[in-house]
Amino acid sequence: MSxxxxxxxxxxxxxxxxxxxxxxxxxxxxxxTLRIITTAPGRVNLIGEHTDYTxxxxxxxxxxxGTVCYGRGSIVNNNNDTDxxxxxxxxxxxxxxxxxxxxxxxxxxxxxxxxxxTNQKWVNxxxxxxxxxxxxxxxxxxxxxxxxxxxxxxxxxxSGLSSSASLEVATAVFLExxxxxEGVVMNSSSSTSYIMNLSERDRKKERAVRCQxxxxxxxxxxxxxMDQYVSSAGCQGKLLLIDCRTLDFQExxxxxxxxxxxMPVLVVTNSNVQHNLGDSEYPVRVQQCKDATECLAKVNGDxxxxxxxxxxxxSLANSQxxxxxxxxxxxxxxxxxxxRTQDTASALEAGDWKTVGNLMNQxxxxxxxxxxxxxxxxxxxxxLAQGFEGVYGSRLTGGGFGGCTVTLVTKAASTKLMDYLKxxxxxxxxxxxxxxxxxxxxxxxxxx
Length: 448
What we know:
With 448 residues, the protein is of the alpha+beta class. It contains 12 helices and 12 strands. Helix 4 packs across helix 5 and helix 9 packs antiparallel against helix 10.
């Protein structure tokens, strides 16, 4: 539990917003039950884009923006009676500050299907996570979750900063808090051991696996595990180098031996061009990577995913006419991006900012030309930043097709850069961009 003095001001504001919304929406449910408050952050990926779903490496950090869940909940017996009292007792009710008059109700039922109602699709991210936690409840006791929950968040929607993962992970921590209160043990989905006997590190990993599965299976988005992982396991002051095959991670400190006064900062710029991964080119890229892997396996039988391939493998497959065109481009990006990500982690710890910046710029070029997930507005932001004095590097961050850039810049030049980007981006696109500095922040946690 966090003390109020240790809660960032924006998260405290979200708590107040969620509390007010809860009291307005569920006043009839007031019974003196202790409220549960959880939060989980969004993320920025410094480098390692579209590598997670091929078992590669990523280097994200949790940011200070996040999602807060405020409410009450319990585990109840669902005896399948049809009277109204039982129905109300076993339902889950959620409401968001984004649509405060729309209270959505669902049942924590393993046979549930995703909502197709436009203004309720966001609840699929919550319901999908709930279904991942149902197996922890004793099957013979016919128990299920019931809760009332109000949600407030400040991760910009559709920005590529993982608002969906933030919502999923905050929900997961909320459910874990209910289970802890009720004395229910959470089983590990990857082994026969109990998660309560695992390390805190493995507990965070397990949570991420469940949230990724919820998005893959229930929401139909074939994402990798990076977003959920860093939201769950983020660490104050450190980035995470995540191996998406083994699910191990290494904490990476920027300039381990650097004086804080000489440290550069990260500036995130939201293009305000939005995307929806479920309806975009994202699933197409996932399939293209699978197709490229099949081609590469013909020249090297040890290649099971693009994580296993080298640039030499790609050259050999291309010379034999096995890998050409779009599949050549896609595989070249992923393989080179994995190398860039590992090199960036080493350069960060060494305080070699010039190398980090060069790798970021190379990554953006690869995303733009080989993976084709950038867009005109993002390219403008990256080019503006890359040409600004004091900037080491700038690139697209996130799934692409809009969203944000991340820029490594000297502290002294940060404010001037943000002012410059706002003016020049508006002049070139007619759109407003939003800029903010960020530092690696804490991951998901229970606040009360």
